[in-house]
Write a structure and sequence with these properties.
Helix content is 59%, strand content 8%. The protein is mainly alpha-helical.
């Protein structure tokens, strides 16, 4: 029996102690431990450290600083990703500015321009007119004119009732009947008022549409280099009703006020509107008819055509 000189362990004959066999192996300078060190140097471990320095791990940290990770956090704060904020879907909506339709802008520019630079506004409206803008003007003015006729009928009915209720003798009845027969005082039934309303509505629209067609034909017959479109002619026809109808409507209301002065005032208002309407029509034709030598005849034929059409349609409706 022998003993190991190093550790003192009892050995069998010829046995080599294990402590000596371990010491005989070359020492490895590089060791891996459970602390993430390799060769004495700190390496990447499950704590997010590399070389003793904190590195990026699955907790969203890099060098000790919070970083963006797969949890939707940056620096510990929630961030927006694909339309989500703090895990909740968000709606992104950029409201587009509302735009005014072109034909509405044409009408507004014309109306506002009449009070600033009427000649320039009329020329621009006729030269660049679409079909919708003058058509809307004519339709609206036709409704307003029909309301004026209806209002006048209602006013006549009210006056007639007052006259009947104020009769004191047979002579008053005779004067009332004679006035009615001469057209000075009239009473209208419901059917007559409905017919008057729609008759005036159709008359205004039809006169404007047919007048526009005649203006187009007349101007194109004289103008060789530039052809006038129906839209431009319709814009010219709408200029007159744009002025005359509102003044006539207001004049109808004014005339219902008792007193002779208000009757005169209505006449003056209508005269003013007719004059302005004629001037606007002249400027509109001048915008498409370049030769001033043709203007008297062109304008005269256009005015005559409108008057004839108005007379014919007035008899029909």
């Amino acid at each position: 029996m022998s003993f190991c000189p190093r550790c003192g362990r009892q050995l069998a004959d010829g046995e080599v102690c294990t402590c000596q066999s371990q010491n005989s192996q070359p020492q490895q300078n590089v060791q891996m431990n459970n602390q993430g060190q390799f060769g004495g140097q700190s390496q990447m471990n499950n704590q997010g450290q590399f070389g003793g320095q904190p590195q990026m791990n699955n907790q969203g940290q890099y060098n000790g600083q919070p970083q963006m990770n797969n949890q939707g956090q940056f620096g510990g704060q929630p961030y927006m990703q694909q339309g989500m904020y703090n895990g909740q879907p968000q709606m992104q909506y950029n409201a587009a500015p509302k735009q005014t339709p072109p034909f509405i802008k044409e009408i507004l520019d014309l109306v506002s321009g009449i009070f600033k630079k009427p000649a320039d506004a009329v020329k621009k409206f006729v030269e660049n007119a679409s079909f919708a803008a003058p058509a809307i003007i004519i339709a609206v003015m036709a409704v307003l004119s029909a309301l004026g006729v209806l209002l006048r009928m209602v006013g006549a009915n009210i006056s007639t009732r007052r006259s009947v209720n104020s009769m004191n003798s047979l002579s008053d009845l005779s004067n009332l009947l004679s006035g009615m027969s001469s057209g000075k005082t009239q009473a209208y039934s419901g059917g007559e008022m409905v017919a008057g309303f729609f008759g005036q509505l159709i008359e205004i629209i039809a006169v404007a549409a047919l007048t526009a067609a005649l203006i187009m034909v007349i101007v194109n017959a004289f103008e060789k280099n530039k052809k006038v479109t129906y839209m431009q002619a319709l814009a010219i026809a709408s200029l007159s009703v744009l002025v005359t109808v509102p003044f006539t409507f207001v004049g109808t209301i004014v005339a219902m006020i008792p007193g002779a002065f208000f009757g005169y005032l209505r006449t003056w208002m209508v005269s003013f509107a007719n004059a302005v309407g004629l001037v606007f029509t002249f400027i509109g034709i001048r915008a498409v008819e370049q030769d001033d030598n043709h203007m008297p005849l062109v304008y005269g034929l256009a005015a005559l055509s409108a008057a004839v059409l108005s007379t014919i349609l007035g008899l029909l409706f």
